[in-house]
Amino acid sequence: MRTEAGAGRERDDDTDPRRRIPPLDVVLRDPVVGPLAAELGRERARTVVVELQRRARSGDLDPGQVREVAAEQLAALVAARGPRPVINATGVVVHTNLGRAPLSEAARAALVDAAGYTDVELDLATGERGRRGGEVLDALRAAVPEAGDAMVVGNGAAALLLATTALAGGGEVVVSRGELVEIGDGFRLPDLIESGGARLHEVGTTNRTHLHDYEQALARVASSGHPGALLKVHPSNFWVDGFVSDVPVAPLAELARTHRLPLVVDNGSGLLEPDPALPDEPDARTALRDGAGLVTASGDKLLGGPQAGIILGDAELVGRLRRHPMARALRVDKLTLAALGATLRDRAATPTSVARRATAAGLRTRVERLARELSDAGITARPVPHEGRVGGGGAPGVPLPGWAVAVHEGLAARLRLGRPAVLARVRDGSCLVDPRCVPPEQDEVLLRAVLDAAGVDPDRR
Ligand SMILES: *Cc1c(COP(=O)(O)O)cnc(C)c1O
User: In whole angstroms, what is the distance from residue 335 CA to residue 207 CA?
Assistant: First the structure.
């Protein structure tokens, strides 16, 4: 230190580049560095800047570049930090690339409560070991009284894998060719089911399957001496139009019963009861009432909860799934159980439910205000009718009438890279900002993000 100080004194004039090294607090208060440091955490940011100052002192970095390089490095660290919040301005309610369902306030609070020690497997009244996630299972059964028992696993795919493996592993699963779908990211239901050891027995054709197609197959499977099951899949990520026909649950259940084979219905979307707004979307209660043995579904599609696989149905069948060794590998953690429980306690309060029900009139009012504020700031913006979608998580073909603000197409990329990041739609040469999936109390945040993307300082408009 002494030599350094001495050396510093010797060349103590304005030409000493080390005098130009900006102090730590000045760098951390820089308008670009500051927000990044806040996002990353000040301790971590401090370490980065101190290292850059050291490099500048040793002549390895131009002191004039400390701020710029600090901003670059902090931005890279922030970007690599993992999932970042994104404002969904696409109008697509269950957006697969945005993590599907956003959680309700209650579910978020439940997650935080469950983050520490919890009574997930303890009965506080007796001090004895409790049924893991018992409250959630009770809530599921309360929502679906037709179910004799319920179970929760990691996701919808896990629910289907466990059901077909526990009921038909080593045997055959009879399923319509038109229902063997790819569920996204290259994963296909047939491969999933066969990976658990069940073989597929496909019946019918891609567009049409009749009851008699199932009859022969079921008779063979039932007399084979191996376990077997009948599977009906309701794909929630696409729909088929035109010359199509499939067999509803009730006659399939009747047929399965005749052959003493279980009927598993994979409903995907997670609707627990009929929803008048989505008349073509199947639900768990109706499927069980129509005679399905088990219904499987996702927790983070229309149900609006965390990623989870929900299994509902006949108590004896659920018991077989619960005792299967694979069940332990597919079980969910306390955080999922907590969030799912809170979601089930108030299903109308989920953001997916609120966004689905947002009216065109209400959206129009919000969009007009947004467009006015943007226009006042000198940005070209106009309200346009825009149809939202339920999304890949259910009722893929159902349009949701609404509104969006149309702004310059080039803003889409800048919105995506902003803080907070905003995902909008690009269509017909415009960037469409749809507030359907944005809680109204965040309209100001959305407005500021668009102003920012357009290069207008939100505080000086
Ligand atoms: C979404 C879906 C799945 C997969 O569920 P994940 O929760 O994504 O694992 C399986 N089957 C159907 C019919 C689906 O719609």
Answer: 41
164 in contact with ligand 1, CB cutoff 6 A: no
Angle at 319 between CA 318 and CA 321, to 5 degrees: 65
Token pair belonging to 447: 């407005």
Asked if residue 268 has its Cβ within 6 Å of ligand 1, the reply is yes
Separation between Cα atoms, residue 384 and residue 390, nearest integer Å: 19
Band of residue 280 on the pLDDT scale cut at 50, 70, 90 = confident
- Domain-by-domain residue ranges, the chain? 14-79, 86-97+353-460, 103-347
Reported pTM? 0.85
- CATH number for 103-347: choose from 3.40.50.300, 3.20.20.140, 3.40.640.10, 3.50.50.60: 3.40.640.10
Nearest C-alpha to atom 14 of ligand 1 is from which residue?
268
pLDDT tens digits for range 442-460: 999 999 999 999 999 888 7
CA distances, 455 to each of 347, 406, 411, 413, 419 (Å): 40, 17, 10, 13, 13
Q: Could you tell me what percentage of the chain is helix, strand and coil, using 3-state DSSP and rounding each to the nearest 5?
A: 45, 20, 35
Tokens coding 324 = 């299967």
Nearest to 71 by CA among 18, 28, 24: 28
CATH class, range 86-97+353-460: alpha beta
Taking each helix axis as running N to C, give the angle between helix 334-345 and helix 105-114, from 0 to 180 degrees, rounded to the nearest 10: 150
Tokens of 422: 């905003």
